[in-house]
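Q: Could you fold this chain for me?
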Amino acid sequence: MEIIKARKADAPLIARSIMDAVGAEICENLAGENRTLADVERLFTTLAERDDSQYSYLNTLVAADDDGKAVGVIVSYDGAQLAELRKPFFELVKTVLDKNLDDVEDETDADEFYLDTLAVLPEYRGKGIAAMLIKGAVERAADAGKPAGLLVDKDNYRARRLYERVGFRAVGERPFCYVMMDHMQFKG
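A: Sure. Below is the predicted structure, expressed as structure tokens.
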């Protein structure tokens, strides 16, 4: 297994990973009554293909197996860039899904490097791939001179154990799409 920079061709996997990470309820709320989950997946795929979005392949590392197949992703970026990187997301949600998310609070700030999305294909889970991806993102954070931070659902004990095992500690709470999450930072 190798951790590499994502390629534009990885956009569909990035999109599915984002949807997996945010969960079915948030995706269904994005789709609303007039759109489908396929519409939401197309939106995230478009964002992953772009070079100016928070979900861009340029902000993503992938775990590639020995055949080069991407089997996991982690999306991360400098929190100082959130406002600019988020604009394409808000614009597409408004035009494609007819939703206004302008009142969504920031889930990170300028003082940290934000680990936005982490997902590993089900058949590859339990093999240490998520930890490898996190390590790659933490190295990117160190290169940026900022602590790595993330949010975890208060009820996602499995993810919390993983984050704690690799060196993250709870430092407070922050909202994500109107839901209060635990905020964690890498402490080594």
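A (continued): DSSP finds six helices and seven strands in the chain.
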